[in-house]
Amino acid sequence: MVAVIDDERARVPFSLVAALLLVSSATLAASMGPRDPPTEPAVATGLERTTAEAQTAVRDGALAAGEAAARNPVIDPANTSTGRVLNESGTFRDALRLRVYLAVRERLSRVGYRRDEVRVTASLPATPNASALRAAKRRVDVERAGENGTAMRVRVENVTLTARRHGRVVAQRTASPEMVVATPVLALHDRVAAYQRRLAAPVTDPGLSRRVTAQLYAVAWARGYAQYGGLDVQNVVSNRHVSVATNAALLDLQRRTIGASDANGRRTLAVAAARTGARDALAATGQDTQITDAMLDSPTEPPPERINGLDPPSGPGPETEETVAVGTSAERATLDLLDGDGIEAAVASVYAADARLVARVDGDGAPRPARPERPGENWTLVDADRDVIRSATDATPDSPATPDGWHRLDAFGRTVRVERTRTRTWQRGDETRTTATSASGRHTVSVAVVGRHANGGGAPPGSITTAHERGAGSLDGPNLADVRGRAVDRLVESRGGRDAVARRAASGSLDGDPVRIAAERPAGIRDWLYEDLIDLRGEVRNVSVTVERGRLGTLEADPASELAERVRERREALVDAPERYDSAAAKARAAARARYLDRVVERLEERARARGDQAEGFSSRLTGMQGVSARTLAAGMRTTRRPPATRQPAVDGSGGDVRFQVDAAPSYLTLAELSHEQVPSIEGTAHPLAARNRNAFALPYGEASVTVVDGLFGGSEGVRLSTAARTLRAANATVGEGDAGPRADLARAVADANAHVERRLRGRLAASGIGTDPAERRALVRAATAEWDSVPARALALSNGSATAAIARRAADERGLSDAAADRLRLRLDETRREALSESAARPQTAAVNETRRAVQSAADGTVEQVANETVGREVGRLANESLDGLPSGLPLAPPAYPWVATTNLWHVQVRGEYARFGIRADRGNPTTPGADTVYARDGDPVMLDVDGDGDRERLGRSTRVRFEVSTAIAVVVPPGRTGVGDVDGVRDERSAGWPDAGGGERNRSAKSARRDGDL
Q1: Which spans in 787-845 are helix H?
Q2: N or C end of the chain, less CB within 10 A?
Q3: Concatenated DSSP letters for 407-433?
């Protein structure tokens, strides 16, 4: 029998029993407990009607809040308990959510239903503190809705609906009304925010910086090339151009981001641009319309193929291509070939052959003699010797095999008898005895003289069809016909003749090392090759590449490397070698050409390395301009070819078409000072726009001294002779040629520099054997340069090479030099000229040039004033400034010993601007005020709002003004020569009156003067 405690049959777990009891008790309690009474008809009706009225309250409150938020947008939260409720990342929307909550709560307080003893109300919690205010903000959601976001979707969560009878709550529910209201406040804010972002965008992104840069490039290149062409342009980029370009860009951005631009601003811009074009004094050339149209291109929104009914500007721009050729590097490579005796080396490498002896030995030869025996006892060996006696007789054996790459020049054979004798010397006491043994044999020896042509000094490989034929091919020369005889003499006859050579071959002691055999050369081959190189040099000099002028002027491009690669690509065609040479002279020609092209490539690679050094110096110069780097300069230059940013589409809202109107104060940001009387939004006075532009190389001396300019290229101290000469020429035309003052000092300095260069040139004439004495050479130089009869003209001729070319021509004519000799003399003189110009004795001191420049500027200004006072006429005024046009400017990209490829200049432009008030009007109508527009305005005012209902307004934040700052760089590049490009009015750093502060700063008004929100 099983005990109960041990019996597990039909046993139920206690946990299951407990669960069943719990569920049963809960069910019983629910069925027996009290129930909510059913809603009475009056209460239900009241709740439904109050819910509907709450919807209306939410709509009206959202509309009113939207209008208030637009009038007083909160952009910057205040550092107060109320302001800190707003998130910095979404300040405007957070403030709008608070406004919606407060406006809806206030309107809900007037919502209700009353019938008999039943009353229904709607409410939102009060906001007595920051915590409650933060919770209130979270109850409200706002987002853009409708077509193009011109309406606003609003949701207010947990509006409490309460029904009471005799003051006792009989029913309660919550509702979360959600609807779309016809207010464009979010669209207005987002478009102004987009406008502000575009104002702050870097030049690499669509925005103000890019657009201003593009506008200024159009102006700067048009004016820069007008100046380069000889027109009266003293200030290539002025602040008046910056002002017009900035306003044009602002209006363009308004249209692209907001969908409209300020009408008053457009009209003012048209007037300002026209006046600026007229002031540019380019009407006679028609280029003023190009400049004005370039400025007006953006805001007038013309079709792309026309600008204001006129053709668009077609002048050069950064993308205009400049042709850069090998140029003087071709001539310097010729000098390298002369200095390194490259022509002689080319001739020697062809008119020569390597020759050697090869032999074949047949037969057993003589056996080794037996060792001589000891003569007897007690003999000691003291010496051993072996003597070989040879004899040779004529034979005609087969020639030895010719090694690969060699050919036979001569061959002979001998029969050689060889006798070998072996001796030993012995000693015993004072007695000496010699013993000997011998053996003999016979060899058949064949010997050949073989040769191969020299390597050709870099000439393309190829055989010479007439190598050993005298008088064939170019120059009727000997070719290599005498190599055979010279090789036999050198390798056979000078070594004892054929018998001796055969005996050495038979004994194994024949010298088979190759020797160089120089061949006879045709008369005049050096001059013939040099004249051929003159023709080749002319062809190589014109090898060129095309480079965008912008990239060239900013040292982005590396034309020297491209030229080196181009010469390498064309090397085969330039060497012009046939598959088979008709003469040794033809191969020497190819060798000389190959050596010359190697030197050209080396020169171009040197230029490329120098360009790297220049780029570092150029970048250092940019570093001195705050906010400018080579990268930003390059990015700005590319703005001229970037596609325009997309425009805002037409606005079709859910309630009909919405048209935006920009209402800014001032509508046109001027550099002038404005007052409250002119623009009511301005308190006191302010400069809406402030600008500064600095010309990096206003003149290659003074503030942008030659020590800076030439320092980029390793130049010496002082001023280039050409720069000093142009300054002196301008001074002679303006100041006069008196004996005192800065002009006279500069004239003496330039004359001394001329004398130094001429002394160096006469020294080169002496080294070249021209003239019997110094007086004769002095007379030759004086006669050759007589046409340059003034000090500055002579200096310019010495600087640009005209004088050396004239000296070389006269020397060649008087001495009857050949074309080759005359060319060599010209190259030597030109090299000496370059060396002399880089020496300090040929570089006038900077101070003398600066003083003269200032005197020219002062005299020109006085002449202009006199002309204006006498009302003579514009053309006379232009004559007064011709001296300024002659002043050189810009950075010549012509480092020592390298060709002048372009002149570049930079303008660092900084612009700061601020609207006293920037507003947008939406003409759909103000839902709270029929007939009125919805206005969004940012003016810097503080924004106050009563959030806790105590009657005092708390500070939410402020409506920051729309402001901007632009920093960009403009590069203008002109071809080499003339006076370059740059500002020549003596003002390198141009600042507007308001610089560096634009606008009046944020206004901190008192509570009395702060704008009131009014009823919500």
Answers
A1: 791-800, 802-815, 819-837
A2: N
A3: EEEEEEEEEEEEEEEEEEEEEETTEEE
Distance, in Å, from the CA atom of 194 to the CA atom of 257, rounded to the nearest integer, reads 6
Task: Compute how many other C-beta atoms are within 10 angstroms of the C-beta atom of residue 409.
Answer: 21
CB 185 within 8 A of CB 152: yes
Instruction: Reduce the DSSP state of residue 448 to 3 states and report it.
Output: strand
- For 742, 855, 978, the CA distances from 753, given in Å and listed in that order, are 17, 22, 21
| Positive/negative CA dihedral, 161, 164, 168, 171 | negative
Name the token pair of 375: 């003569």
- Per residue, what are the HEC states of 256-314? HHCCCCCHHHHHHHHHHHHHHHHHCCCHHHCHHHHHHHHHHHHHHCCCCCCECCECCCC
Q: Say if residues 372 and 415 touch (Cβ distance below 8 Å).
A: no
Rounded Cα distance, 121 and 478, in Å: 126
| Alpha-carbon span 252 to 328, nearest angstrom | 48
Beta 321-325 vs 178-181: how paired, if at all? unpaired
CA atoms within 13 A on the CB side of 106: 16
Q: Is there a contact between 554 and 324 (Cβ–Cβ < 8 Å)?
A: no
Which amino acid type is present at position 673? E
Task: Report the C-alpha gap between 907 and 245 in whole angstroms.
Answer: 14
pLDDT in tens, 946-975: 998 888 999 999 999 999 999 888 889 888
The total of other beta-carbon atoms located within 10 Å of residue 16's CB is 9
| Amino acid symbol at 156 | V
Sign of the torsion formed by the C-alpha atoms of 832, 838, 839 and 842: positive
Low-confidence ranges of the chain (pLDDT < 50): 1-37, 281-313, 649-655, 700-715, 861-886, 925, 1002-1016
User: Considering Cα of 299, then 302, then 303, then 305, what sign does the dihedral take?
Assistant: negative
pLDDT of 740 reads 61
Give the residue from 877, 874, 838 showing the smallest Cα distance to 860: 877
- Exposure class string for 274-289: b at 16+ Cβ within 10 A, else e: bebbeebbbeeeebbb
The predicted structure's pLDDT at residue 63: 93
Give the angle subtended at the CA of 795 by the CAs of 853 and 747, to the nearest 5°.
Answer: 45
Amino acid identity at 892: P
The candidate with the shortest Cα–Cα distance to 101, out of 1003, 956, 726, 990, is 956
| pLDDT given for residue 944 in this prediction | 94
**Measured in whole angstroms, how far is the alpha carbon of residue 390 from the centre of its chain?**
82
What amino acid occupies position 639? T
**Closest residue by Cα to residue 967 from 196, 295, 210:** 210
Q: What is the pLDDT of residues 604-637, one digit of tens each?
A: 998 888 877 777 767 766 666 655 776 777 777 6
Query: What confidence tens digit (pLDDT) does each residue in 995-1014 have?
Result: 988 886 544 333 333 333 33
Number of Cβ atoms within 10 Å of the Cβ of 339: 11
Helix spans in 126-281 (H): 130-138, 185-200, 208-228, 239-257, 263-279
CA 147 to chain centroid: 44
Q: Find the helix or strand (DSSP H, E) in which 608 lies.
A: helix 584-623
- Cβ-based burial of 638 (10 A; exposed 0-12, middle 13-18, buried ≥19): middle
Encode 701-736: b = buried (16+ Cβ within 10 Å), e = exposed.
bbbbbbebbbebbebbebbbbbbbbbbbbbbbbbbe
